[in-house]
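Notes from the 1:1 (GR / supervisor)

We went over the backlog. Supervisor wanted to see one worked example end to end before approving the batch request, so GR pasted a single chain during the call. The sequence is below; no edits were made to it. Supervisor asked that the structure be written out right there so they could see what the output format looks like.
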Amino acid sequence: DGVAPSAAISRDGKLLAFLASRDGRLDAWIAPVGTGDFRNVTQGRVPGIDTPVRSLGFTPDGSHLTVWTRMLDATGAESIHTWAVRSTGGRAHPYLDNVAEVDWSPDGRRMVYHPAAPGDPLFVTDANQTTGRQIHIAPSGVHCHFPVWSPDGLYIYFVQGRPPDNMDIWRIATEGGEPERITFHASRVSHPVFLDKTTIAYLATAQDGSGPWLHGMDMERRVAHRIGAGREQYTSLAASAGGRRLLTTNAVPRTSLWRVPVMAGVTVETEARRISLPPTGGRSPRLGRGYVVFVSPDDSRIIRKRTNANNQLTQLWRGNQERLVGGPAIDPISERIAFSVAAGGRTRLQLMNHDGTGLRTLAADLRVKGAPAWSPDGRSILVAAEQGEGPRLFNVPTDGGPPAPFAADYSRDAVWSPDGRFVIFNGADVGPNFAIKALTADGRPRALPDLVLPRGARRVVFMPGGNTLIVLKGPAHDRNFWLIDVQTGQGRQLTDFDPGFAIGDFDVSANGRDIVFDRLRDDSDVVQIDLASR
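Structure output shown during the call:
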């Protein structure tokens, strides 16, 4: 229990490492392969190791384990660093300042890494030099992660795109130049590793959002294919030198819905109440008048409604090849339900009545992204659509009229203020965070206090009255609810949950008294795969 989606294996394939909260907090654990002798080597002394990308790595000789950390100073400013601890144990210590996702060249003499800066610029150090030279920087709003050297030392392979679900593998010569796109998934792609000189393995979700699945590609043929037909969802991947031994984490998700009162100091153990659901659980709850609507977490192909009075369950929608993208949205006037679905490489906006009848498609030509948001009068829906340079908000009339652009810059996951005077929305990711922005009802910029939230906490909800927001803050597996004043930017923490769980989505009751949220215990199995000799 408590194993997070992050694993590493030494170059000689003799040591493995993973992150787990087996001692009540997230720490790095090491074991010799095949022994089961797991040792906690960080002992709570390394701060901020819960990151959404590659967190762990071994030095070329296997003597040290490196850990990506995030730290806050006295002013609240965040910085990233790489720490190290001896594989045999000892005290963890700072290793590389302002450096993340380091990988060493095949001869162990050079490094590739990126700092926490816009565009995730990639740097390569030459032999016997500590200061790297920049070989690549992504355009604004685009991220670069998981850099890895090719076996011949001539290229850096990396994942580039707009997180979380529009990424692909690219490569660039170690001397710099024009990057070359290698895969064309435009999905959630991560953890490339080499199995031999010409074969890469990596993780990627399918076009319908399922997965991540294990994929492979022969660089001479350039044809990507899924490896295996099982239902294992891989969350991280590492390989020894030569690719003969792989280490993966396979997700074992357990999702539940909970209700807590809006008050300071709430803990799950004292004030939270679990909502009775089917064995599969639920995600993305939305509150209606006397009921809660939620999505099946296992395949995101079912929307159900549970009434508060008698706990009656009703299936409102079931997709065959379609999967929901984001959470649904309930019209405050008529209680119609809007939601986005993906199938066959396309996404579209759907609308139905609160009893599941009257299903129809709106703005069929829009490539929608993220969750929709109803206008206060129920006449239109704000939803982001992909425009080539990132998502932009569009206003979609529910009477079948054509969609109209609402925002000119990167924008998604909008929510209207209760009085309908302005909209707040998510801006582009910068490092592990993104900024909350605002526009007036006629599309003009509106000033907001600085509000930066962690990636994966895109959902924000207005409290009744319109001057305060409920948001999520904190690392992925240790997030809590905060109440933020949109006029002053002042906030206070509402909950104090135990770490080890991820909160993905939530809603607030119409009277502002309760928060209903999904709680994911994304435990992982650590799996060793030994490949047969050729």
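Supervisor's comment: The chain is about 0% helix and 50% strand.
Batch request approved.
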